[in-house]
Amino acid sequence: MINLRKITEENFIDAFNLKLGNGQEKFVSHPVRSLAQAYLYRDQCQPFGLYNDEKMVGYVMVIYDYDIPEYDIWHMMIDEKHQGKGYGKEALKRVMAYIKTKPFGDSDRVTLTCNVENQKALALYKGIGFKETGEADEDEIELSLNISVDNIE
Ligand SMILES: CC(C)(COP(=O)(O)OP(=O)(O)OC[C@H]1O[C@@H](n2cnc3c(N)ncnc32)[C@H](O)[C@@H]1OP(=O)(O)O)[C@@H](O)C(=O)NCCC(=O)NCCS
After folding, report:
1. Is 76 near ligand 1, meaning CB less than 6 Å away?
2. Burial class of residue 89 in the structure, from the number of CB atoms within 10 Å of its CB (0-12 exposed, 13-18 middle, 19+ buried)
3. Does domain 2-146 have CATH number 3.40.190.10?
4. What letter does residue 85 receive in the DSSP assignment?
5. Ligand 1 center–CA 59 separation, angstroms
6. Whose CA is nearest to atom 15 of ligand 1?
7. What ranges do the domains of the chain cover?
8. Cα–Cα distance for residue pair 47/7, rounded to 1 Å
């Protein structure tokens, strides 16, 4: 059972200690870097630890883009030891439930980007209903979902 818990002074070291697998650094920023960005965007984002019971097994950040407006999912990762156990999928559903509460402002649009070579993550996102928008920045393609009309599988 995966739960989201906000990153606080109690648990940020656990986020620092999460590990990516070999070659995965090119797909996602480590939580250390992500939390530095979270400081800059502190009025419009919420970083979370992903917990299996009492153990932090992953990390994700939700950020609100006031300009569009839309919710973005940044830097989602599951520790290498815990990948492939279904935690990523469950965590993504929890993230969508959090976004549905519209914590920063109104918008039904949820967007993220993913490296085109990251087949595992693409399968995860498309599996719950994200669709490619056609926008891309070099190897990073954009995927989006409308929480008011798209069914989240
Ligand atoms: C991508 C990531 C978050 C997925 O989390 P996970 O816990 O490993 O994935 P899950 O076990 O929940 O599997 C979710 C889906 O991913 C896909 N998937 C999982 N393992 C896969 C594999 N080896 N090959 C292809 N697809 C795979 C499947 O679609 C799966 O859904 P299904 O079980 O219903 O078929 C995780 O592997 C990770 O942290 N990777 C490194 C960082 C990263 O790439 N983050 C994404 C940045 S955009």
Report:
1. yes
2. middle
3. no
4. S
5. 14
6. 124
7. 2-146
8. 6
What is the enclosing helix (H) or strand (E) of 48? Answer: strand 45-52
pLDDT score at 22: 96
Residue with tokens 């967007």: 111
- The total of other beta-carbon atoms located within 10 Å of residue 84's CB is 9
At residue 153, does pLDDT exceed 70?
Answer: no
pLDDT tens figures, 21-43: 999 999 999 999 999 999 999 99
Which of 61, 76, 119, 120 should be mutated for ligand 1, with most atoms under 8 A from CB? 120
**Atom number, ligand 1, closest to the C-alpha of residue 85:** 11
Residue 95: band (very low, low, confident or very high) from pLDDT cuts 50, 70, 90? very high
